[in-house]
């Protein structure tokens, strides 16, 4: 696909547009932890978003995509969220946040081309936002540092698009490095790059093909449950140090669980506390090159997300259960926010072809349509 040619088809001849690429991400372990101030372990993917940008005279801004036909136009004088803007609300939000930051942007045309499946939970929105941010930063010489762009794009998704996401997605696609996972403390933004040496195993992403939009899911409901639990726990004299749920160790949670009278909310906290601990163990497993230990942690993570956090659903549970039964798979779990989207599986490289045929057949038998397997 000649993106320069497609750009010209949409926007006409002129100066050569500048091209950028931002990857998608998958979270290895540490789900629904970022907004609770804990640890996550995402890594970048080979799939992602290309953005080609060219400045233009005036205040008009135009967005095109190789994934949809319609060109969406707006004006810098009035950047607002609109349902009719569809996917373009993600880059528009970045424009709005940069204007709020005091930057006087000029008009521009931008073409996006992405190969991240939308709604799969592989951070297509964060990838688009970061691609827009990096492109504008360069085109208008704004001199933002990468970490500032990470925070700005998260704010854009929160305040402009109305999705109360944590910082993990934007951080992972903005600060990652090829061949490494990011061991990120979402409370402090301290991070460490962990080598992803999977040896004889491959990390596969399996898409349920059930679309899921965060804003339409129970994501915000889970966040509210966690916030209510935190307020209850902070009432204990011994809990003065607890600023976020992930500050609790499993032992502290056992001692303070009685402060949460609602058993459902208590289950949510149990997931957060133990999932946070699993991330620490996963880093140790990677550093010790103990892949079976990492696989066991993936299985435990899925069980917790299914039983305590209740964000899986029949599609993801079917994928995880089938994957875990395959002899070449040492671990599998849902990844992302849940309610559809994707699962990941650690599978012996020599058996990837067999695993792919098996998982598609098993899934279709239960769900009635096929899943997709990505070798990313």
What labels describe this entry?
23% strand, 5-stranded mixed sheet, 12 strands, 2 domains, alpha+beta, 11 helices, 4-stranded antiparallel sheet, 376 residues, Ribosomal Protein S5, domain 2, globular, Alpha-Beta Plaits
Give me the secondary-structure topology:
Layout: H1 3-11, E1 18-27, E2 39-40, E3 42-56, E4 60-65, E5 68-75, H2 89-100, E6 107-114, H3 124-139, H4 146-160, H5 168-175, E7 180-185, E8 191-195, E9 201-207, H6 219-233, H7 250-256, H8 263-287, H9 291-307, H10 314-325, E10 329-335, E11 342-348, H11 352-367, E12 372-375
Parallel strand pairs: 4-6
Antiparallel strand pairs: 1-3, 2-7, 3-6, 4-5, 7-8, 9-11, 9-12, 10-11
Order of helices and strands: HEEEEEHEHHHEEEHHHHHEEHE
CATH architecture heading of the largest domain: 2-Layer Sandwich
Derived from helix and strand composition plus strand pairing, the structural class reads alpha+beta
Radius of gyration, in angstroms, nearest whole number: 21 Å
Overall number of domains: 2
The name CATH uses for the topology of the largest domain is: Ribosomal Protein S5, domain 2
> What is the count of β-strands?
12
Task: Write a compact overview of the structure shown.
The chain has about 375 residues and is α+β, with helices and mostly antiparallel strands. Helices cover about 40% and strands about 25% of the residues.
């Amino acid at each position: 696909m000649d993106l320069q040619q497609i750009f010209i088809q949409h926007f006409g001849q002129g100066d050569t547009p500048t091209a950028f690429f931002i990857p998608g991400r998958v979270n290895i372990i540490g789900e629904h932890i970022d907004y609770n101030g804990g640890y996550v372990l995402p890594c970048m993917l080979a799939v992602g978003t290309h953005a080609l940008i060219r400045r233009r005279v005036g205040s008009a801004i135009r967005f095109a995509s190789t994934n949809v036909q319609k060109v969406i136009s707006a004006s810098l004088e009035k950047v607002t969220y609109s349902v009719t803007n569809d996917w373009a609300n993600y880059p528009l939000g970045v424009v709005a946040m940069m204007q709020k930051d005091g930057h006087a942007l000029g008009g521009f045309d931008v073409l996006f081309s992405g190969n991240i499946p939308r709604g799969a939970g592989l951070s297509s929105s964060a990838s688009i936002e970061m691609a827009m941010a990096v492109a504008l930063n360069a085109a208008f010489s704004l001199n933002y540092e990468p970490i500032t762009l990470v925070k700005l794009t998260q704010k854009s998704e929160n305040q402009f698009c109305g999705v109360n996401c944590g910082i993990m997605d934007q951080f992972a696609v903005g600060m990652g490095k090829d061949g490494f996972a990011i061991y990120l403390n979402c409370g402090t933004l301290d991070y460490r790059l962990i080598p992803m040496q999977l040896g004889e195993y491959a990390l596969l992403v399996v898409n349920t093909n059930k679309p899921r939009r965060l804003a339409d899911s129970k994501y915000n409901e889970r966040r509210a449950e966690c916030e209510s639990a935190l307020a209850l726990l902070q009432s204990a004299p011994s809990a003065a140090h607890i600023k976020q749920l992930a500050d609790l160790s499993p032992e502290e949670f056992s001692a303070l669980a009685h402060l949460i009278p609602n058993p459902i909310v208590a289950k949510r906290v149990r997931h957060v506390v133990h999932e946070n601990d699993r991330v620490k163990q996963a880093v140790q497993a990677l550093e010790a090159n103990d892949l079976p230990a990492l696989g066991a942690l993936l299985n435990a993570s899925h069980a917790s997300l299914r039983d305590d956090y209740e964000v899986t659903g029949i599609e993801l549970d079917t994928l995880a259960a089938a994957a875990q039964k395959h002899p070449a798979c040492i671990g599998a779990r849902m990844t992302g926010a849940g309610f559809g989207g994707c699962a990941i599986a650690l599978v012996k490289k020599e058996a990837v072809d067999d695993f792919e045929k098996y998982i598609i057949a098993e899934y279709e038998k239960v769900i009635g349509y096929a899943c997709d397997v990505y070798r990313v």
